[in-house]
Specification:
This protein has 282 residues and is α+β, with helices and mostly antiparallel strands. The chain is 32% helix and 26% strand. It has 8 helices and 11 strands.
Length: 282
């Protein structure tokens, strides 16, 4: 949490100390929503000034001293009781810097809804009753952070250029075609699932779905972009099954594009003999 200033003096890292003190101070006060304001440095200590987000509530001063490579912190507040307006419906603070990075890492592995649901389940009833939603962020904030985490691995910030570069990447075998008005996606692993199904049962029935809620428009004037997917039911042990996508498409056209998508998939299967003797697609 410390770094050495250019003049040789010890300073608190701006990206880390607010989060650390916010966590530590909860052992003394778990009702207020803490925000760091500034740090004042003196010869042998520093004062961290914090405040509660609720208007008219308390101010805090944390006197921090470094002793034998450990911190000694003394917390002072402007009052004994908190003052939170019931009409505020609970307040929180912004997710910044290292805290945002931690959320990004977690949201790479989980959906936004599950992430927020877990935060609600783990929230302290005492804090919630006092209007402290510090550990719970809105749906929009969580989705925004997850979008940032996922887009960090994009080839390009522009959506179309990103798809073109992905298609041209020899190590990427998922995006097969990028053009106007559609993008075709299917992998060898997906087709292997279909191949195994055909060996066990003939014919295999696929179900075509389309939705416009998972793909954003390129700009506000563009047509509605739909995500198409052909899925099959894959049997599992104990008489259960799972729905698995085998062919996918993103398109802003919804007539000729479907026919082109079907023909391209059929040509790919026949060309590479991915389904062997079972490569009959109607």
């Amino acid at each position: 949490m410390l770094y050495t200033h250019i003049n040789g003096e010890k300073r608190l890292e701006k990206t880390k100390y607010p989060i650390m003190f916010r966590r530590l101070i909860r052992t003394l006060n778990n009702t207020c929503v803490f925000n760091a304001k500034r740090v004042r440095y003196f010869d042998n200590h520093c004062n961290v000034c914090m405040y509660c987000t609720h208007e008219g509530c308390k101010l805090f001063r944390i006197k921090v001293q470094l002793r034998d490579q450990e911190f000694l912190a003394e917390v002072y507040s402007s009052g004994l009781n908190y003052h939170h307006n019931p009409e505020d419906n609970g307040l929180t603070n912004h997710v910044k810097r290292i805290q945002r990075d931690l959320h990004k890492e977690a949201l790479k592995k989980t959906k936004a809804f599950s992430f927020r649901s877990d935060a609600v389940d783990m929230a302290s009833p005492t804090q919630l009753n006092c209007g402290n939603l510090q550990g719970i962020k809105s749906d929009d904030v969580v989705r925004k952070i997850r979008s940032e985490a996922i887009s960090a691995d994009d080839y390009d910030k522009d959506d179309f250029h990103d798809l073109v570069l992905m298609c041209n990447d020899k190590e990427n075998n998922f995006v097969k075609h990028v053009g106007v008005p559609s993008v075709h996606c299917y992998s060898n692993e997906q087709l292997d699932i279909l191949k195994n199904l055909i060996k066990k049962q003939k014919p295999v029935t696929g179900y075509l779905y389309a939705t416009g809620t998972v793909v954003r428009k390129i700009d506000k004037n563009s047509k509605r972009v739909l995500y198409y997917v052909l899925v099959v039911n894959v049997p599992l042990p104990r008489d259960s099954s799972v729905t698995c996508p085998v062919v996918e498409m993103i398109s802003s056209a919804h007539d000729i594009a479907i026919s082109q998508w079907r023909n391209a998939f059929k040509e790919f299967v026949l060309k590479h003999n991915r389904l062997g003797q079972y490569s009959q697609i109607s």
